[in-house]
Design a protein that fits this description.
2 domains; two-stranded antiparallel sheet
């Protein structure tokens, strides 16, 4: 009996709340509607708040309150985890209302929303680059903001994702033993991210790819490609003299030198 009473009270409360919300939706008192939207947002009822602010966008467009409507609508979208929509409306606020009191936060949120939609590392990373650009712009515009340290942290995290994506793309051709494509992709990875944490492994794979590409080449291309492998060997041992790959790459060098008929001191025999 007691449980039934509790359920009845809850149902009455929900019906009352729904009835109140429907009245707000239909209201033409836009100040009241805006106020209720803020209340819904602050109480965590983001879907209701978002609906109200969406209705108010066209009403307040061009007025001194328009930026506030955009701001709360974007925040309501974030509350619903619709980060793409949130990013879109924060961008609109930044572009159309450069004197808004919410401008700095909106500029940051553009980058933060883009960060939140950055995909898993194996997927296309265009949005990751957009997030980096947006966060860097925020840092440039507000270098003394309390959010700068966090923006730097997010950029570092996003860059790590790009580094890993570059590494996986380069390694893909290597794993499939497509050494010609592997040389190109590995060179690109090293050029794009010279300080990559994968640098030693990338350079090792590049050397091995050049070696195997030379070994398997037709005669008119073999000498040049093997010479490229020798050059890559010297670059590798110069940078990583104590590498765990040292014994293996030394064998590549010995084989390559023999095939090129090198003498001691790296001088070609007559």
């Amino acid at each position: 009996m007691k449980n039934n009473c509790i359920l009845l009270v809850l149902n009455l409360f929900l019906l009352s709340a729904c009835g109140e919300y429907n009245k707000v939706i239909k209201s033409t008192d836009y100040e009241f509607k805006f106020k209720k939207g803020v209340e819904y947002y602050e109480s965590g009822e983001y879907a209701r708040a978002g609906t109200l602010f969406q209705d108010l966008i066209s009403v307040y467009r061009g007025t001194s309150k328009a930026d506030q409507v955009y701001y709360y609508y974007a925040k309501s979208m974030m509350g619903q985890k619709d980060y793409l929509m949130g990013e879109q409306y924060f961008r609109t606020l930044v572009k159309e209302y450069p004197t808004s009191k919410n401008l700095e936060e909106a500029q940051y949120m553009v980058g933060y929303c883009a960060y939140l939609v950055s995909p898993k590392v194996r997927l296309d990373q265009a949005s990751t680059r957009q997030a980096i650009d947006a966060l860097q712009l925020y840092i440039n515009l507000y270098p003394f903001s309390e959010r700068v340290d966090e923006a730097h942290r997010l950029i570092d995290e996003l860059n790590d994702k790009l580094v890993e994506k570059s590494y996986l793309n380069a390694k893909l051709y290597y794993d499939f033993e497509n050494y010609k494509a592997s040389v190109i992709s590995l060179n690109n990875a090293l050029k794009d991210f010279p300080d990559s944490k994968y640098r030693e492994e990338l350079m090792y794979m590049l050397l091995k790819s050049k070696f195997l590409l030379g070994i398997k080449s037709i005669e008119e291309k073999k000498e040049q490609r093997l010479s490229d492998a020798v050059d890559e060997y010297y670059s590798f041992i110069d940078e990583f003299p104590e590498s765990k790959y040292r014994k293996e790459v030394d064998k590549y060098f010995e084989t390559t030198s023999r095939l090129l008929n090198y003498k001691t001191g790296n001088t070609k025999s007559n």
